[in-house]
Structure formats: structure tokens, C-alpha cells
Amino acid sequence: MSKFCIGLMSGTSLDGIDGVIVKINEDGRFESLIESIYLPFSKSLRDELKELSESQVVNKEKLLRYDFLLGKLFADCVEKLLEKSKIDRKEIFCIGSHGLTVGHFPSQKKIFGVNTAFTLQIGDGDIIAEKTGILTVSDFRRKDMASGGEGAPLIPFVDKLLFYRKDKNVACLNIGGIANITIIPKNESRDLIAFDTGPGNYLSDLAVKRLFGNKHTCDLNGNFAKKGRVNNLLLERIFADEYFRKMPPKSTGKEYFGEDFLNFVLQVGRHLDFLDLFSTISYLTPYSIAKSIEMFVEYEDFPEILIVSGGGVNNEFFMESLKNLLPDVDIISSDKLGISSDFKEAIGFAILGFNTLNRIPSSIPSVTGCSKPQILGKISLP
Ligand SMILES: Nc1ncnc2c1ncn2[C@@H]1O[C@H](COP(=O)(O)OP(=O)(O)OP(=O)(O)O)[C@@H](O)[C@H]1O
Ligand SMILES: CC(=O)N[C@H]1[C@@H]2OC[C@@H](O2)[C@@H](O)[C@@H]1O[C@H](C)C(=O)O
């Protein structure tokens, strides 16, 4: 019998909460999207979350209170989903909640002789379970990290489930705050490869505000970027960043491709016209994605189709640049294949929650570098 599951996601763009109700069959296969909702954060909440997730100095009390606050906002999102869908909460098998990442430090650092690496997503699962009365799985990344993995990306499991094809190598690209890809070889005996390619909407959102004023929350449809000309010298200088040279598994975050990175680019490109400067910053996203895919040119896994999701699908400059950079790849939005590009990750966390409760491992060693496939997350009983 298939089951209703709820997925909740709040990503690195800090724009709001995506929530879905999906139907999953007993083998763990996605059947259909039943309901979806997007709850944007207010401007002042965004600013607080930005401070919390970017500042090096953490206000302990603020961190803990926001852990609670987000738990409550995620629970509100569940209530809205139930109301909209008219589904009784007793019919929901589980909630899978990603939370909101406030820190992600996957590279090893020795403290008191011990190698450490960890990640933190807030929006406590206990609060969600208590307020909704529904079994909740949260905190998905830490078990992977505990076994030596990067803790990200986790959606590749879902990408394979949704998009695997026998006849073609497929790549799934999500352009969220950070961009990431999953390469799914048609030859099932080959390993899945997935990693964060680098910047995504977050860097573009920061740059648009800095260069064109705070009234802009993003580069709507890529309109500013389309007006400028990419400066190749600046592009090569910023593409020289060591993250782009690293081999997968690798993951990154706003700590890396955020304010500090933007300050560096603005400093190096200070002599440029604002539109050209912005176009170049923006171009770094499709350029680094295309270069990541080109790495596979010599391999049998080179993707013939690129299925794109995430808010970046709406950025025409990103999409047009990708098409020019990858002329041999068929680039389509996941919407064309029946998976909402806005809600793919929320759908993913509903599936990951279902996996946990069915003891299905969701992390993949070839993707995150964990020592063995892990059953992820923490379970909060209602
Ligand atoms: N019409 C549009 N034009 C340009 N950009 C857009 C448009 N609509 C959404 N975006 C971009 O998409 C972003 C939100 O993307 P998304 O919801 O995929 O991010 P996320 O889930 O926070 O990211 P992540 O996958 O990194 O966790 C916005 O911050 C904005 O930059
Ligand atoms: C630590 C963290 O929150 N990482 C996110 C982030 O946003 C995109 C990219 O960086 C990806 O690695 C990941 O999210 C998706 C949902 C994932 O785990 O697949």
C-alpha cells in the first residue's frame, strides 16, 4: 500500500520553506506529488538567518531560539499543507525535514589531536513532531559525516530513483543557493557521482543587492546579467579558486561562496562597469557547472541529458549560458519530466524520511565519501 509522506526543505538561498505531500509506494518509489506550498521568509527574518549562517561569531542564545523558531515554522508549513490538501494527519506516515543549514564544515580540522568535520541544520525535529503529532525524521547529514562522509549532497539517491535511464547517461543539476550535480550512468554497475559544482543563486543574490541596491532580492529572470558582457580575465581569475580544482567527493556552502568570495571578486574587478562585473560573477555559476560536466567527456559516463531543477531554472542567463557552453547535451527542466523544479528537494526529503523509517540507507559512499551506505536522520516520535 502506498503512503503519504511530507517533505520540508529550506535551502541555502534563505528565501523560505518548501513543503510537499507526496505518495510513495511500498517499494519506496515516488508515485505522485499531492500538494505543495512555498512559505517565503519575511525580509527581516532573512536578514537574521543570513547573520546566523554567515557570521563567524555565534550568539548561543540566538542559535538555540532560532532552532525552536524554525521548528515552529516548519510545523506551520505542515499545518498549511494538511489544510490545503484536506488530508487527515493520521494518514501521514512521516515527515522528512531537512532543516536550515547554519554551518557546514566538511573538511577535516584537528582539534586536541582529533580530526573534526561537522554540519548543523536547525529547525528541531522534536518541535515539528510535537506540534504536528506526526512522526518526524530530521538531521539527515550528521550520520553520513560520522562515517567520514561530506554530509552532502544527499539528493543523489533521489535523483537516481527518479531519473535513471537504461538508454542514456543522465545528469541532474540543482541550481539552488549552491549548485550541485548528480551523474547517473546508464550502466548500473558504474558508481553514481555527485558533488557541489560551486556557486549558485546565493552569490548572484548577494551581488545583485550589492551592485544594484537592496530592493532587489534576486536577478529576476537573469535580466541584469543579460545586459552586461562577461570579462574573461576576471572570470579566469575567479575560476582559479582551489575549490574548482578539487576532485569529488566535494561539497561547499555559503561560508565559501558567500560574502567573502564576493568581496574578493568585487575587489579584483573594481575597474569594471557594474553590469559587466555582475555578468561575470553570474557567469561563474553556469561556467563552473559546464566545466564540471566536461570533466566526464573522456569517460563513458558523459551525460547526454541534463535535467535541471532549483530556483536557478528561472534565471534565463544561467540557462542560456549553459546551453551555449554544453552544445552536445540536451538540457531540460525537471518539470518536463513531471518533477516540479521548485519542489524536487522537498520531494527528496520526503523520500529520505520514508527510507529512514524503512531502514533503507540513503547515503552513497561514491558520492559523499562515507565509509558505508548509512541510514540517515534522527527520529522524533509525536
Ligand atoms: N524568476 C527568477 N529569476 C531569477 N532567479 C530566481 C527566480 N526565481 C527564483 N530565483 C532564484 O532562486 C533562488 C531560490 O532557489 P531555491 O529555492 O532552489 O534555493 P534553495 O532551495 O535555497 O537552495 P539549495 O538547493 O542550495 O539548498 C532565489 O534566491 C533566486 O535567486
Ligand atoms: C550542507 C548543505 O546544506 N548542503 C546543501 C547545499 O545546497 C545545495 C548543495 O549545498 C547541496 O550539497 C546540499 O543540499 C542538497 C539538498 C543535497 O544534500 O543534495
From TrEMBL:
Annotated SUPFAM superfamilies: Actin-like ATPase domain
EC top class named in words: transferase
InterPro entries: Anhydro_N_Ac-Mur_kinase (IPR005338), ATPase_NBD (IPR043129)
Encoding gene, per UniProt annotation: anmK
Entry protein name: Anhydro-N-acetylmuramic acid kinase
Pathway where this protein functions: Cell wall biogenesis; peptidoglycan recycling; Amino-sugar metabolism; 1,6-anhydro-N-acetylmuramate degradation
Family classification: Belongs to the anhydro-N-acetylmuramic acid kinase family.
Lineage start: Bacteria, Pseudomonadati, Acidobacteriota, Holophagae, Thermotomaculales
Protein species of origin: Thermotomaculum hydrothermale
Gene Ontology molecular-function annotations: ATP binding; kinase activity; phosphotransferase activity, alcohol group as acceptor
Its job: Catalyzes the specific phosphorylation of 1,6-anhydro-N-acetylmuramic acid (anhMurNAc) with the simultaneous cleavage of the 1,6-anhydro ring, generating MurNAc-6-P. Is required for the utilization of anhMurNAc either imported from the medium or derived from its own cell wall murein, and thus plays a role in cell wall recycling.
Membrane-spanning ranges: none
